[in-house]
Amino acid sequence: MLITPPKRLLKVLVVDDEQDVLETFRVALEGRGHKVATFDKGHDAVAAAREEDFDVAFVDVAMQPLDGAGTARLLREISPRLRIVMITAFYSPDLPVSMRQRLLAEASTAGTRACLRKPFDLTTIARTAEYVAG
Questions:
Q1: Hey, which bits of the chain come out as E strands?
Q2: Across residues 21-28, what is the average pLDDT?
Q3: Cα torsion for 87, 35, 44, 25, to the nearest 10°?
Q4: 91 close to 117: Cβ distance less than 8 angstroms
Q5: CB 85: neighbour CB atoms within 10 A?
Q6: Rounded CA gap, 10 and 32, in Å?
Q7: Does the pLDDT at position 1 exceed 90?
Q8: From 66-70, 86-90, 94-98, the region with the lowest mean pLDDT
Q9: 3-class DSSP state for residue 16?
Q10: Count of beta carbons in the 10 Å neighbourhood of residue 1
Q11: Which residues pair with 68 in a beta bridge?
Q12: Structural domain spans, the chain
C-alpha cells in the first residue's frame, strides 16, 4: 500500500483492448487522486491526446487495428514530453520469443520509458505512473 501522497496529481491516459485492465488502472490511479482517461483503441487515445495534455500514458503492446508501438509513435508526435509506459502480457510462454522481442523492440524505438508486465497490482501501477512522471 502506498502511504505517502503523490508529489503532484497526474493526468493519465490508458489504452488497452481489455476492459478489466482499463478498470484496474482506473481504480489504481483514481484511488491516488489522479485523473484517468481510458480507451480500448489506439486511434481513440490519439484523438484524445490531440484535445488534452497528459502526463503519462500506459499503452498495451498488442492491440488492433493500431498496435501499441504505432499508438506510442503517434502519441509522441502529438506530445513529445508525454511519458509512455508499455503494458504487456508477452511474458507468456504461449507466445514465440521472436514475436515478443520484435514487438517490444518496436515499442522501445517508439520512445517508451518502461514496460509493465501483466498481471500487475494496484500499487505497482500507481508507483510506475508517479515514478515516470518525475
A1: 11-15, 35-39, 56-60, 83-88, 114-117
A2: 96
A3: 30
A4: yes
A5: 22
A6: 9
A7: no
A8: 94-98
A9: coil
A10: 5
A11: none
A12: 11-125
Residue 4 has what DSSP assignment? S
Judged against a pLDDT cut of 90, whether residue 79 lies above it is answered with yes
Cβ(85)–Cβ(58) under 8 Å?
yes
Closest to 79 in 3D by CA, of 54, 110, 113: 54
**Residue that is written with C-alpha cell 501499441 in the block:** 68
Give every CB contact of residue 134 below 8 A, 6+ residues apart in sequence: 83
- What does the alpha-carbon distance between residue 72 and residue 67 come to, in Å, rounded to a whole number? 9
Q: pTM of the entire structure? A: 0.85
Could you tell me if 1 and 44 are in contact, meaning their C-beta atoms sit under 8 angstroms apart?
A: no
Please tell us whether the domain made up of 11-125 is placed in CATH 3.30.70.2750: no
Cell of 25: 488502472
